[in-house]
Recover the amino acids of this structure.
């Protein structure tokens, strides 16, 4: 074991200035442990440099085509950032409501026109409720059919 | 080089930027991977994975950190993933051609039976037995030609931490190496 007071100096011996080196040298002249420790550190440095310095990847690892290969591999393995969402029913519903509104306006205009022409239309009792029920049934059947068949009239 | 990379990125020239990144950082990334995985093949695989990640992430690079800091961070994460997923053993093959070639070039006593010092494989084993952080610092320190600053950048830790780890590692290695040498001489 080196002397505690000199351990740090011995460890950074290569970076010491002249005065510090002189101090260490003076000490080592009378301290075998510190001298041996410094010699061991020097040997260790040499051996470790021999083991690791200059270690490179194998030839071919850095071949010219490596960039292209990486790009190709990355592109092939690229996954979509998000899974596509299942189609929403709302566009269909809004579509249907839009068409229903158009149909209602046309019907209203038709009724108004006939009234203006002096033609009296006779509607049975509860005709409004029957029409609403038929409308709702038609809407339900249409939406169910679209959902099952996957057919959409909207451009996606 | 980083300025050139930045210029390409600003112009959204990803391929050109990636070519420069690859040229500039492949050896550094390999060294970092080797220090963490301590296995050449795994380090090469990990380095390739790093550059795949870098390529994917290039469009998202916002220059909040330097290119090197950004790449080393990706590299450390990729190596940690490799360590976890592969259950990589931190062993360096003694038959590893690169290590052996480097050792031979430097006059590794492993190839010289006349040496009285403990043989290099023993030292290699001692390095592998160090605590993880110390081992990484020691390997990187010598791979990066004894640059504290480069080790600090690669591992993303302060310079003082690097010096502390290295100091403890070298002391530990020196004492254990000396002890093994003494034991060998005595025939223990």
């Amino acid at each position: 074991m080196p002397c505690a007071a000199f351990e740090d100096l011995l460890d950074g011996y290569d970076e010491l200035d002249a005065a510090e080196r002189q101090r260490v040298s003076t000490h080592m002249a009378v301290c075998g442990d510190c001298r041996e420790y410094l010699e061991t550190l020097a040997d260790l440095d040499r051996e470790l440099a021999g083991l690791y310095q200059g270690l490179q990847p194998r030839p071919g690892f850095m071949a010219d085509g490596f960039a292209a290969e990486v790009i190709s591999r990355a592109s092939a393995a690229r996954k979509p950032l998000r899974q596509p969402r299942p189609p929403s029913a709302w566009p269909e519903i809004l579509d249907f409501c839009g068409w229903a509104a158009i149909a209602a306006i046309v019907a209203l205009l038709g009724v108004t026109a006939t009234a203006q022409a002096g033609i009296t239309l006779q509607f049975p009792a509860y005709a409004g409720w029957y029409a609403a029920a038929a409308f709702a049934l038609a809407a339900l059947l249409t939406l169910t059919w679209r959902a099952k068949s996957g057919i959409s009239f909207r451009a996606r | 080089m980083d300025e050139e990379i930045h210029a390409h990125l600003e112009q959204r020239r990803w391929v050109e930027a990636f070519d420069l990144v690859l040229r500039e950082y492949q050896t550094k990334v390999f060294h970092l991977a080797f220090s963490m995985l301590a296995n050449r093949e795994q380090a090469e695989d990990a380095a390739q994975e790093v550059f795949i990640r870098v390529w994917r992430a290039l469009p998202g690079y916002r220059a909040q950190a330097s290119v090197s800091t950004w790449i080393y961070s990706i590299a450390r994460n990729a190596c940690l993933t490799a360590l976890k997923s592969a259950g990589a053993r931190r062993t360096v093959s003694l038959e590893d051609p690169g290590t052996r070639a480097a050792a031979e070039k430097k006059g590794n006593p492993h190839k010289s039976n006349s040496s009285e010092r403990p043989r290099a494989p023993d030292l290699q084993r001692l390095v592998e037995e160090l605590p993880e952080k110390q081992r990484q610092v020691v390997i990187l320190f010598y791979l990066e030609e004894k640059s504290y600053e480069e080790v600090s950048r690669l591992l993303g830790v302060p310079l003082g931490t690097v010096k502390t780890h290295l100091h403890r590692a070298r002391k530990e290695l020196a004492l254990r190496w000396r002890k093994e040498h003494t034991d060998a001489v005595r025939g223990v």
User: Anything to note?
Assistant: The mean pLDDT of chain A is 79. Residues 90-149 of chain A form one domain. The helical segments of chain A are 4-11, 18-28, 32-52, 66-77, 90-116, 127-149.
